[in-house]
Specification:
Blueprint: H1 16-25, E1 30-33, E2 43-50, E3 55-61, E4 64-66, H2 68-75, E5 80-81, H3 84-93, E6 110-113, E7 121-125, E8 131-136, H4 137-143, E9 148-150, E10 153-155, H5 166-180, H6 189-192, H7 200-209, H8 216-224, H9 227-237, H10 251-259, H11 261-276, H12 290-307, H13 316-325, H14 328-336, H15 338-350, H16 356-364, H17 368-378, H18 383-390, H19 402-416, H20 430-436, H21 440-452, H22 454-467
Parallel strand pairs: 2-7, 3-6, 6-9
Antiparallel strand pairs: 1-8, 2-3, 2-5, 4-10, 7-8
Length: 468
Amino acid sequence: MTTEAVRDTHSTSLPDLIEKLLQQQGIAYQLRPLEYAGPAAQQVQACLLCDSIGTVLSLIPKDHLLDLKRVGSLLGRDLQPVRDGELQRILSKHQLSELPGLPILFNSPCVCEQSLLDHNYVSLDSGLPGWCLQLSQNDARTLMAKASMARFAVPLSSLNDPAGSPEQDSQDLTDAVQNFTALRMKQRLEETIEIPPLPESAQKIMKLRVNPDADVEDLADVVETDPSLAAQVVSWAASPYYAAPGKIRSVEDAIGRVLGFDLVINLAVGLALGKTFKLPKDAPERSTPYWEQAIYTAAVIEGLAKAMPREKRPELGLNYLAGLLHNFGYLVLAYIFPPYFKMICRHVEANPHVAPHLIEQHLIGVTRDQIGSWLSRCWDMPDEVSIALRHQHNPHYQGEEHVYANLVYLTLALLSRHQIGSGPQMPIPDALLARLGLSEDKAEEVVGKVLEARDALRVLVNKYQAAN
């Protein structure tokens, strides 16, 4: 048996149970770091599913999406991902920290995407963080001898984002609504979906944003008309994150001495919009809570913009707002498609290797990015914000106001390296950094400073959550 590794494995070995099972099957393997796992088409993504009958292990290539309806139809069962608490209990019983793609480890049926065995070798998660097992095609066939082989997964290459025109977004959303509702008689999307109007306080604040003569006193007057918003602004200014000297005595004091005109405008708009749609009761497990992700994204994007060369910098206020609202489409998605939001959440859990917006594209034909951008246009939000929301997952976008979308993408990619957000880690192309005038080291330095203030930021997150 070959147990070769690319880097030193003296301190790294498989759990005794897994090694014993592989030996019993006569399966040779190489223990390799994940960075040497090979193309996604040859990497195995395992998911443990369950229903009232019991569990099923699903194995697909990492360049595919597991469609729960398809695998359910294949087996004649209503399967859902095993909940995280139960999964951790199962793994701990085997002294594992991650789910390995080993059918012989589980006393469960196994279903395997047939294309996995088309390759000379495959790589499986070993159950050890950062390491995989690499098997030849023959050994992979031995391992999966009792699995049901079928074609039930969806190639990610078929889930490319649609063209990013506002007209296409509206059409995609209209089609999605018509597919899932009986409201086919309405012609206009705005009539079909009963979206609440932009909150009055947000309307007043957005008018101040474009008024060159507006000052701190004008903003304080608007904020003070909304008691909950006024309390929020004062509490933010008094938080450890801003470390303001002395006591905050008024809204005007909070704006003028601590937070600043632009920041308060964007915080207030974000709060007002967040209160328009309630956080959904369901959410994918192992994903960062909505407001935590929003606050971290806004803080990092603000730091990145300030680190850019002065001639390339976007408008800092709008940049912060784009970061704060980047995932707003998630709330609207839950509002428009409540019966199907649970289905989306379960697919996100079953496909941690797939970006959530691609899962939405497959399941309902429209993404949270399209929905958030569409609504921001309906509410006459600045173009920079709607464009940033729409193209936030496209690192190659170079169109109108691209700097805002590029900065949101870079921020999400950096945070994904620290397990903040949802979905897999996102690559950071050199061309993207070049457009923004940033080095990767500088960008990581910005994220590091934000994460150093994690405790203080968590206080801000709690204040936002309490206000909603």
